[in-house]
Amino acid sequence: MALLLCLVGVTAALAQGCLHCHSKFSEKFSFYRHHVNLKSWWVGDIPVSGALLTDWSDDTMKELHLAIPAEITREKLDQVATAVYQRMDQLYQGKMYFPEYFPNELRNIFREQVHLIQNAIIESRLDCQRRCGIFQYETISCNNCTDSHVTCFGYNCESSEQWESAVQGLLNYINNWHKQDVSMRATPAFLVSPAFRCLEPPHLANLTLEDAAECLKQH
């Protein structure tokens, strides 16, 4: 069975929300917030809807519940944004709604957006399973909207030669990481995972191809 080993740098940052990183987010949500008072007959819906829109980004990060870093490709971010803006624009095209309808629809769109982002991030990671060895793809960090990348190790090798080459590539990756300045390097996620004790920093200095292969076979 194909397995997946993700070698992602772990960094701490303030939560912003994936959709927040899209180029049209500020323009779109500024319009949504400024026109919210025209969408409901009931005055109580206005502050509720306004709060939902204002907290959209932070609430998104709280609801993602991902075991992997929230990093999304630009292509998938565009797809999510297009779907969300389309739903929101359709909602705003209507006239005033009856009480509670408008904020409830905002919540529905929000939940749909969270699922789209979760699926987009996970799908990109699972694509690594169809590869053999080290693979890297460009992403945007949902935490701070900076360019980032994800480096993965795919186990889906079709021959012993491919597997040996893949493990050698991983070994080279680890050795290069080990030589970097401690204060400058980002720690790959697999090095802080309890499942891979044999690949923790104390063992890297003398790590051999055979040791790395044996460690990977155990997981």
Report on this model:
By secondary structure, the protein is an alpha+beta fold. Helix content is about 50%, strand content about 10%. A four-stranded antiparallel sheet has the order 1-4-3-2. A hairpin with a 5-residue loop joins strand 3 (about 130-140) and strand 4. Helix 2 (about 45-55) runs parallel beside helix 5, helix 3 crosses helix 5 (about 100-125) and helix 4 packs antiparallel against helix 5. It is elongated. It starts with a strand and ends with a helix. The model is unreliable at about 1-15 (pLDDT under 50). Belongs to the Izumo family. It comes from Piliocolobus tephrosceles. This is IZUMO family member 4. InterPro entries: IZUMO, Izumo_fusion. Keywords: Signal.
Could you spell the SSE succession in H and E letters? EHHHEHHEEHHH
Radius of gyration: 22 Å
- SS elements, strand count: 4
Shape: elongated
| Percent helix range | 40-55%
Strand order of the largest sheet: 1-4-3-2
Quaternary organisation of the protein chains: single chain
Amino- and carboxy-terminal Cα gap: 11 Å
* Content of β-strand: 5-15%
Spans where pLDDT lies below 50 across 5 or more residues: 1-15
Mean pLDDT: 78
Question: What is the SS-derived class?
Answer: alpha+beta
